[in-house]
Write a structure and sequence with these properties.
By secondary structure, the protein is α+β, with helices and mostly antiparallel strands. The chain contains twelve helices and 20 strands. Helix 2 packs across helix 12 and helix 3 packs across helix 12. The two termini are 15 Å apart.
Amino acid sequence: MHYRNREVEQVRQIAYDCDVLVIGGGIVGLSTAYAITRAAPGTRVTVLEKEAGPARHQTGRNSGVIHSGIYYRPGSLKARYAVEGAAEMVKFCAEYGIAHAVTGKLIVATEREELPRLHALVQRGRENGIPVRELGAAQIAEYEPEVRGLAAIHVGSTGICDFVAVARQLGEASGAEIRYGADVLRIDRRASLGVAVRTGDGAVLRARVLVNCAGLHCDEVARLTGDDPGVRIVPFRGEYYALRRSELVRGLVYPVPDPAFPFLGVHLTRGIDSEVHIGPNAVPALAREGYGWRVVRPRELGATVAWPGTWRIARRHWRYGAGELRRSVSKGAFTEAVRRLLPAVRADDLVPAPAGVRAQAVLRDGTLVDDFLIREGARAVHVLNAPSPAATASLPIGREVARRALAVLGRE
């Protein structure tokens, strides 16, 4: 009893800079800050972001699609949060005047062997409560005159928005202190007291609870905290092209995905800026922020190569990976992949566009983590797998992480 009283007295004497310290200024980190201050007004939240502004990585380098949730296993966090999050995202954008549109999308089967998978998606969509319309080959032209396929489904709840603007608004509406250019170098965690974080500029911040939303670096931040994440982030670069003849595509067109992979395949997306982007493929990145083949960071690459799961992925999926690499180095091969959906496209229609990198968590046995993964340590909450559709699902993800962080505060 006396020991517990001493701990309480120590906590009272510490000059905390904030109650909750969030590492990562992407859409998930900023949504978490927003959710905390909404659920518990007066809670002091600080967000550390190493870049000069918000949403510079996964949030700001995706296709801008508000996903319906049709792809994800019923009952999974991805399914639940994507369906909830899509509706909430549309409302959030409308409330704050952020550019968005509910456009619907087509998922198109171009080969006979894809038809059973397409029908399975119809069933999955219905189980997840998503409106789906089945289309024959002739009906595809009602939505996309230039797209060809054997059959398709139309998913009406899919949309597009400006996720960078959403992230910025979440940060402003949260009332949190957001420190940009704050690279985390060291974390000292004391289970009975809290955490102290040293940043690259020499500042030290003390908080009662740490929330790790560091995306591409989340496993490293977990280890800095003293927790074993049990996974390694293996970065996959997604390369995009812009379509010079944008009139060829009216909206959003996707292939039927391979259920063995968490990637959706090369798709056509008319964004909120009216440009049509084509991609992404999925190739290994040579750095956590390896947005091109020339970006190589030996320490990060070495850590990826040393993880047993990396080699097991390579052995298990080398044929798939070889195809992705071929499309990365050959514009002609990439064009051929696009022509399966859009026969009229030519190689000179494709203009290189900025790439993104997916922070994919991989288990030691080579399993690609296929759901959102949130784990807790002493005075810490770690978001360890939040790739697509995390932007769509960011509001419910933020609430769940906030709930866990506030529970820690409530136990003091």
